[in-house]
Design goal:
54% helix, four-stranded antiparallel beta sheet, single chain, alpha+beta, 231 residues, Triger factor/SurA peptide-binding fold
């Protein structure tokens, strides 16, 4: 299935139907087939894009567990992804084996049978899916290259995290805390990830000031649930 990303092309297709969505009549009701969720520098993100990412689990939901916000959460991630792919200057390449490995991870997570059902439901083939995986890998690699090596953690920070975060969390779970020396790498990684997330968030906020981002969706907007992938 050929994906349509150009905003002008999308609007030409939608003009006679609706400025915001394509619809069909079923059982006497109108159901949304697709909808423009956001436009980032004339690149369109549709409801189908959001649902494909959701169905294949390319972005895990946030920790709140508020499933009514899941589409807003994924849409925001996709906007950030497009921003960074458009504006980042890092010279990054993605090898075929990286995409194949990512594909295998997705299959392992959702199962081969479910994978086939979802592909059929969205009229996708593996090349279509790999395009989503490729963009996601580019996004993650750019973030890693730009920020991961720039973040350093001191022993004092590790000690503070151990006593103020790790020990209380283990006690809350009724578990015996491990000695700090056994989990130094784990703590360092957690601190790095938190700091990197903060730096990435600040970077993306600055990027958003440089581009035209139009969002046609907000938390609380009603979206009909996906039909089952099979009867």
């Amino acid at each position: 299935m050929k994906r349509i990303y150009n905003f002008a092309t999308w609007m030409t297709v939608c003009l006679c139907l609706s400025a915001h969505c394509l619809m069909f009549a079923g059982d006497g009701l109108s159901d949304i087939v697709d909808r423009i969720m956001a436009v980032v520098n004339e690149e369109v993100i549709t409801l189908t894009d959001v649902r494909i990412v959701e169905a294949f689990g390319l972005y895990e939901s946030d920790k709140s567990g508020r499933m009514q916000d899941i589409h807003s959460y994924i849409l925001n991630k996709l906007i950030n992804q497009k921003l960074i792919l458009q504006l980042a200057s890092e010279n990054i390449s993605i090898e075929k084996q990286e995409i194949d490995s990512y594909l295998n991870d997705v299959i392992e997570k959702i199962g081969q049978d479910e994978m086939k059902k979802i592909l059929v439901f969205f009229s996708l083939d593996l090349d279509d899916l790999k395009q989503y995986l490729r963009e996601n890998l580019f996004f993650k690699k750019i973030i890693s290259v730009k920020f991961n090596q720039a973040v350093s953690v001191s022993l004092r920070e590790i000690e503070s995290y151990y006593h103020q975060v790790y020990i209380p969390s283990q006690e809350e779970k009724g578990l015996e805390p491990k000695p700090m020396v056994e989990i130094l790498d784990e703590i360092e990684s957690a601190i790095k990830q938190k700091r990197m997330n903060e730096q990435v968030e600040e970077w993306i906020l600055n990027l958003r000031k440089k581009v035209n981002v139009q969002v046609n969706f907000k938390v609380g907007d009603k979206i009909s649930p996906l039909h089952q992938y099979s009867e």
